[in-house]
Amino acid sequence: MRTTDSAADAGTDGEARGTDGEPAAAGTDAANGATGGTSGTGGPAEETRVAREAESQLSSLTTAPGEEKLHVPSIGVVGWARWFWRQLTSMRVALILLFLLSLAAIPGSVIPQTNVDAVKVEQFQKQHDVLSPVYEKLQLFDVYTSVWFSAIYILLFVSLVGCIVPRSWQFVGQLRSRPPRAPRRLDRMPAYTTWRTDAAPDEVLTGARRLLSGRRFRVEREGDAVASEKGYLREAGNLLFHIALIVLLLAFAAGQLWKSDGGKLIVQGQGFSNTLTQYDDFKSGSLFEPDDLDSFGFTLDDMHATYEESGPQKGTARDYRADISYWQGSGGKEQRTRIKVNHPLEIGDSKVYLMNTGYAPVVSVKDGKGGTAYRGPVPFLQQDGNLTSSGVVKVTDYRDAKGRKDQLGFQGFFVPTFDPTSGRMFSASPTMRNPVLFLTAYHGDLGLDYGAAQNVYQLDTKRMKQFKKADGSPLAKKILPGETMKLPDGGGELKFEGARRWAQFQVVHQVGNGWALGGALAAIGGLAGSLFIQRRRVWVRAVPGPDGTTVVEMAGLGRSESARLPEELGDLAYAVQAEAPPVDEQDERDRRDGPDGQDGPDEQGTAGNDARQHDDRTHDDRDHDRDEDEASAGPSPRGDRT
Predict the structure, then answer these.
(1) How far apart are CA 642 and CA 635, in angstroms?
(2) DSSP string of 102-162, one letter each residue
């Protein structure tokens, strides 16, 4: 049957089904008509082919609806750019970027940074051979100037700007707009009160308007109601907070781009001028220029340091104080002041901090001919809390006993308080009570003429030979103040004359500090305003009542959740009642009651008509009124975005 029916459907001259209910015969005739009318001309093979074609066509038929391609227009480059801008300037993305920025700052506080302490970075790289190359590729040794940190920083800045500009225009529009008119049904508001008074409606509304204006509400009278609104500073505080964040970002960026930071070790009696050549180490921002340095200088007159003398904190520094004489500009008058820890000297945009102190032994070196080859203080760097210090003395202008040019090098330790009973070359106290200098002597090439930078506190002995005693042992000696160290073969001597204090200063030049402080204070103020200022609306309606009195209604709506709204509305209602006092309940009942104690017919009729009119309202009318009231009152507090 399936083959016959398929053939019938496939035939070009197939006839319609007859009313006699024999579809098979009709299908066979149609198949024969399609193949020439006789079964003998084509044979069984032809019938099979026709049946297969009909079956394939029938299998392709379906009653399912055809799939139509939706021709959706492409948004294009402009559309994608607009979508990306809307996502970037949304508050959600701004918060995500702010969170990412805080996360990105964590490596900068955990991993040593090159611009803070290059020595620690070098030590870290030596101790971590595997991690160091990875950190360098990820720029983790320079987090705050890295590409990825700068990208987050710039995106956050753009997001804040794109978020603030349209909200600022919206806020200006809100300031210029009038308070929304009073809803038809004030009793639907979250806070509501009503009373009757003998005062005229105009008197009530005039008094309410004067009262609300005195409470710094924006007031607008329309018809039989007064509309007012207050709390616009909430949005102003929100905008101020975001603007302050932008100021902070700009101040931080300016401080990083135009900053400079240098260190200088100054021995007591020596001076410093704020130029690049005077610094021991110096680093700056990418946009810094040498002309940006403030013009000043100072001299270290005296250095005072006190230490804990007993107890578990023995030897701990209690106070550092540097007495200096400073001047500003090339012809500035010299002034005296003190620099203490956390109390820097401020000159222009620069601050001079006191960082550390130590000792500089004063030595004099005579050559083999008796001439003075060197004389002055030599700073030694501390090695422990008791100021056991190490250092070197380099003498470049020296001649031996035969008059030949040579160079000398002395290295060793300085101990401010030597304890001979301890048997160790370590100081017993940071205070200088029994100073001792331990030195070993070398001669040869100091390596100063090879162009490579050298550490002034270290001695390169690769090209030098150590002086020997007569017995062949290395020349080393413990020297007290006033004693000398004789060099072999009449090569001269070194005399230990005493010790002075040195102080290490850090000069920081950073712009934008004032802007950063102002931005931080403004951010705190704006955040406090956005959290504690509540935006709310208050309406007052006064209409004549059916009994000749005035019906007063007051309602309040908070644009944000506030538990103080009913209390504030009650306070306002109490103030309005001072000019529109409520009608006494007893007088009202006496006026309503007739001579026989029954209600007047007019009043009963009016109340009944009012009740009937209220009951006869349809659901559609009530829904329409509710929609109108909500539209007049503004968006719901829960849906209002602040």
Answers:
(1) 12
(2) HHHTHHHHHS--TTT-HHHHHHHHHH-TTHHHHHHHTTTTSGGGSHHHHHHHHHHHHHHHH
Contact (CB, 8 A) for 298 and 275:
no
Tokens representing residue 439 in the block: 């030195």
Any residues with CB less than 8 A from the CB of 472 and at least 6 apart, and which? none
Give the separation between CA 92 and CA 624, rounded to whole angstroms: 36
Q: 455-459: which pairs have CB atoms within 8 A and are 24 or more residues apart?
A: 456/392, 456/394, 457/379, 457/380, 457/381, 457/390, 457/391, 457/392, 458/392, 459/392, 459/394, 459/409, 459/410, 459/411
Q: How far is CA 216 from CA 208, 210, 211, 213, 219, in A?
A: 13, 10, 9, 5, 9
**Nearest of 557, 551, 531, 550 to residue 633 by alpha carbon:** 557
Question: Running DSSP on this structure, what letter comes out for residue 172?
Answer: H
Query: Is the pTM above the cut of 0.85?
Result: no
Distance of CA 479 to the CA centre of its chain: 57
| Measured distance CA(478)–CA(149) in Å, rounded | 54
Among candidates 581, 613, 538, which has minimal Cα distance to 183? 538
User: How many whole angstroms separate alpha carbon 532 and alpha carbon 595?
Assistant: 57
CA distance 270 to 501: 11
Q: What is the DSSP letter of 92?
A: H
Beta strand segments in 460-562, E = 464-466, 476-479, 484-486, 493-509, 536-544, 550-558
Question: pLDDT by residue (tens digit) across 27-51?
Answer: 444 334 334 444 444 566 777 776 7
The one-character DSSP state at 556 is: E
Neighbours of 523 (CB within 10 A): 18
pLDDT, one tens digit per residue, over 537-581 is: 999 999 998 888 999 999 999 877 667 889 999 999 999 998 889
Helices (H), 266-329: none
Closest CA to 296 of 273, 269, 325: 273
